[in-house]
Design brief:
The structure holds 2 protein chains of 2 kinds.
Chain A lengths: L5 E3 L5 H4 L22 H8 L1 H17 L9 H19 L4 H14 L5 H6 L4 H18 L2 H13 L3 H18 L2 H18 L8 H17 L9 H13 L5 H26 L8 H13 L5 H24 L1 H14 L5 H7 L3 H18 L2 H8 L1 H4 L3 H18 L2 H18 L4 H9 L13 H8 L5 H25 L9
Chain B lengths: L4 E7 L5 H13 L3 E9 H13 L5 H32 L4 E8 L1 H12 L3 E6 L4 H7 L2 H8 L4 E5 L1
The chains are: A mainly alpha, B alpha/beta.
Chain lengths: 505, 156
């Protein structure tokens, strides 16, 4: 044992303090210092951290709103900005749940006179919020029917014949499933499957690089796939909802897929190469995993009526979103599909109540209200002029800078919070340099999902870290490389490909 | 005469070959029984579920199912690890008793120290900077402060 690496404490009672164990062949002497601990004042400060942050933030809020507005900003703009600052601090520090911060924004706007109460609450009725509601209910029915698990098991069983193919199929499957259902739900469904594969293969947590690679294949697949459509994460509908409320412009289901698709395809290729390069297999074959997957798939039995019904409904709904989204409205299609699912008894309300996290509507309603208030009062433009807009005047540089800032922020905080905080500023920046606001919406919402390194970046990464197989030192090189490649690929495609689909920079 | 016991503490996030070797060596020297405690720490699963609920927007029922799957995985991992250490100890001529407990890391360790009446505790400390330990606290330091028996700390 390396003595330099060991520290010991003196025991509390005198005989043990000598460190001699009674009757020992050789006395075990305990030397050294106490493990480093926090000073008492810091302990007290940490215990009350939440209250201190809340009190300081509210003090900053009242100090700001009692000041005269600076040049170029109206008094309402200053109040809107103060509310924005409170929300950003709460989102970053996580002192209250994200959705409650959204609710706080909606309360503060009418109380400070920035918006009328009926205006603020009406923003909860934004189409984006109802589209998310419909998409979440449909995702719940897809998972509950067992169809998602059946697809996962069959694909892995068919394609995962060698260690490399198993990792590759896990990665691509997670990505493709995240095109159509929320990536976090995909990660939550895949996690037990990956765990059982790793255990069946006898992989050791913290020792097997291939084991780490399997969990990262799941997480990185979900991350990349989640930006392809509006369904992979609620960030894209949120960004488009704010865009619509603040500028009247919008981005349809198909135009979004066309804009994000090439980035996703390139990253799926690059991600696979990075996985195979950094997480090589120490196994010769994966026959045990194949047997386990076959048994699991067999246990599911034949396809049920519910699975067939949900499968057909999902295909028709996606087809309608792609072809009729602009004409019929995305939220209308989503909610119509939900009604049809209930008519054909493909789901129950109890399941919806258990599966859908209603907090998302509070956050999104609050974030859309915030974007609207900042834009209406001119505060968004003022912030834009005093941040990136003050020194970047080139549209290309603006897209690159916004995408980079978003990826960096997403590594450290919730990506919904990043979109909610930056989207109003992005709209202001677009106006400042006379750029189509849809471009900056894409430059914010697509990279906001592309963070591959830290556990806080996305719930899928947190889940991969929680497996015990993935450690920061294993991810850091591959993850940062993917962050960088994602940013570069996104910027290159924005400059070279977007003009072809009518998005001129 | 009752055999003395040395407690080796491992958890979902605290495992190190150095502490295993140190614990077996200490038990051998003291002719003591090695109690191998693996704490399946609920805090880790709670933290992940909280993030999935508040940021991933996973509903109550899928969160519960995921929580159960995570805890089951940790218990399965723990069983493999404690079995390996038990074999290692027995090969070195040290009688060993494995224990797997689910719960809060600090409270579970303190409970087992009292329950098993151990002579000494050997804990693994994760690699972290001193500043981080000062700012965010340390569970190992907390156990060391509250333990009625001497605690030896082995860095990862």
């Amino acid at each position: 044992m390396n003595e330099k690496r060991a520290t010991s404490s003196p025991a509390p009672d005198p005989p043990a303090a000598e460190g001699v164990l009674e009757g020992a062949a050789r006395p075990l002497v305990l030397r050294g210092r106490l493990a480093q601990t926090r000073p008492r004042w810091l302990e007290r400060l940490a215990r009350h951290k939440r209250l201190i942050i809340i009190a300081l933030t509210m003090a900053i809020f009242f100090a700001l709103v009692s000041q005269p507005a600076p040049d170029g900003l109206t008094p309402e703009g200053l109040k809107a900005l103060a509310i924005f600052l409170v929300c950003v601090i709460f989102w970053v520090t996580d002192v209250i749940p994200l959705m409650i911060t959204g609710l706080l924004a909606v309360i503060l706007f009418p109380l400070t006179g920035v918006l009328k109460a009926n205006e603020a609450y009406a923003l909860f009725g934004n189409q984006a919020v109802f589209f998310i509601l419909g998409a979440f209910i449909l995702a719940s029915s897809f998972m509950r029917s067992g169809l998602s698990q059946r697809i996962a098991l069959l694909v892995l069983k068919r394609c995962g014949k060698t260690p490399e193919r198993l990792m590759g199929s896990l990665f691509l499957l997670s990505a493709v499933m995240s095109f159509w259902i929320t990536a976090h739900a995909v990660a939550a469904m895949m996690f037990p499957i990956v765990t059982e594969i790793a255990l069946a293969l006898g992989l050791k947590p913290g020792r097997s690089r291939y084991g780490a690679g399997l969990f990262l294949a799941m997480a990185w697949g979900c991350i990349i796939g989640s930006v392809a459509t509006f369904l992979g994460g609620a960030r894209a509908p949120l960004a488009v909802g704010i865009l619509q409320e603040t500028t009247g412009r919008t981005i349809g289901f198909l135009p979004w897929m066309l804009a994000a698709g090439p980035t996703v395809v390139v990253l799926m290729g690059v991600g696979l190469l990075v996985l195979l390069r950094f997480f090589p297999s120490e196994l010769g074959e994966v026959e045990v995993a194949e047997r386990f997957l076959s048994e699991k798939a067999q246990a599911l039995g034949p396809l049920t009526r519910r699975e067939k019904g949900i499968g057909a409904l999902m295909i028709v709904t996606i087809f309608c979103w792609v072809t009729l989204g602009d004409r019929l409205g995305l939220a209308n299609i989503a909610l119509a599909a939900v009604v049809i699912a209930f008519i054909f008894q493909l789901m129950t309300w109890k399941e919806v109540e258990e599966d859908v996290n209603w907090g998302v509507f509070l956050l999104y309603g609050g974030a859309i209200a915030m974007g609207f208030a900042l834009e209406r009062t001119g505060a968004a433009s003022w912030v834009a002029r005093h941040t990136l807009g003050g020194f970047i005047h080139s549209p290309v540089l603006m897209v690159a800078a916004l995408a980079l800032s978003t990826i960096v922020l997403t590594e450290m905080m919730s990506n919904s919070a990043v979109v909610a905080s930056l989207m109003p500023v992005a709209v202001g920046l677009a106006r400042d340099i006379a750029l189509d606001p849809r471009l900056l919406t894409l430059a914010l919402a697509i990279p906001s999902g592309l963070a591959f390194t830290l556990p806080l970046s996305t719930p899928a990464m947190m889940l991969a870290y929680s497996s015990g197989f993935v450690r920061l030192r294993d991810v850091i090189k591959g993850g940062l490389l993917l962050d960088l490649i994602a940013w570069a690929v996104f910027c290159l495609l924005a400059v070279s490909y977007w003009p072809w689909i009518g998005l001129e920079l | 005469m009752k055999m003395k016991k040395i407690l080796l503490v491992l958890s979902t996030t605290r495992k190190s070959p150095q502490s295993v070797s140190a614990a077996i060596e200490a038990a051998k020297v003291a002719s003591a029984q090695l109690v191998i405690l693996f704490v399946v720490d609920r805090q880790l699963s709670d933290k992940v579920i909280r993030q999935l609920t508040e940021e991933g927007w996973i509903g109550g029922s899928p969160s519960d199912r995921l929580y159960q799957a995570m805890q089951a995985e940790y218990v399965a991992q723990a069983e493999v690890i404690v079995r390996e250490i038990q074999q290692q100890a027995e090969q070195a001529g040290v009688p060993a008793r494995p224990l797997i407990r689910e719960g809060d890391f600090i409270e579970t360790v303190l409970e087992v120290i009292a329950e098993q009446e151990v002579e000494q505790v050997i804990l693994t400390r994760r690699h972290r900077s001193t500043l981080s330990r000062i700012l965010f606290g340390s569970a190992v330091a907390e156990i060391q402060r509250r333990s009625p028996r001497p605690v030896k700390i082995i860095d990862e």
